User: Fold ABC transporter permease from Agromyces indicus.
Amino acid sequence: MSTTTDRADGTARDIRSTAPDARRRRGTRPGRLAVGIGRIGYEVVGYFRTPDAVFFTFLFPFIMLGIFTAAFSSSGDIQPGPGAEGISVGAYYLPGLLAAGMLLSGVQNLAIDIAMEKSDGTLKRLGGTPLSPVSYFLGKFGQVFVTGLLQAALLLLAAATLFGIALPTEPEKWATFAWVFVLGVATSALLGIALSSVPRSGKSAAAVVIPILLVLQFISGVYLQFYALPEWMQNLASLFPLKWMAQGMRAVFLPEDFAVLEQNESWDLGWVALVLLAWLVVGLVVSRLTFRWIRRDA
Assistant:
């Protein structure tokens, strides 16, 4: 036993409790935030090592922008009204495809990924470790934001350089883009976590998730011109977040004259924020109620 006799009365004092090894054992365990941040790199690398996820969530908007530009450019520019200045087909569809990329990166990616991890036993193994759900989801959130931001940047770069689409130059437009993007991605990520509890197995996850999101994309103005859809379909789309993400992005990238093509002839950015916040809360509550580690004693 290690002792010292530096007391005035000459009695020994045990110094084991102040040894460096003891201090390290007590104080070096990383916090939840540090562990979650550390998992972001792991999740991003794992994402790009999955070819089907990269194709259907990362590259899909690029492919669709190229298809729309090539297939419909011959029909001429899209105009908000007779005599008004028009924009190219690619420029019109760009905002919707940016919104779709946010949805795919969050909802589709996480819903399928977590369902697969639940099915193959990854969550069961993680449930037996000190890893907390907070750290686990911080890693997932970080991965969605990193890949979603990279996807948006590359899509905008391709739009400007390959398809000749003019991007906005006003700082306020990019400020709107920033908050719509952050709020949209956060909402999509939480809804993806919530939706991951629906598939009964990892094998059925894609079959459950992809059709739901595909329908939403068609009725929310991603693949079809929203103003041309029937009113009942527009009203139905208004119940879901993708329509509002696409509308927020149209407010950024389309000329102000195009606001008359929206349901209320306005960009309604206040409603964009309120609806996305409402769905964010729904996703948070449902995720909290449905997610659990699959332990051996479950």
Q: What stands out?
A: The two ends are 45 Å apart (CA to CA). Strands lie at 3-4, 13-14. The chain has one domain: 35-290. Residues 4-8, 10-27 have pLDDT under 50 and may be disordered.
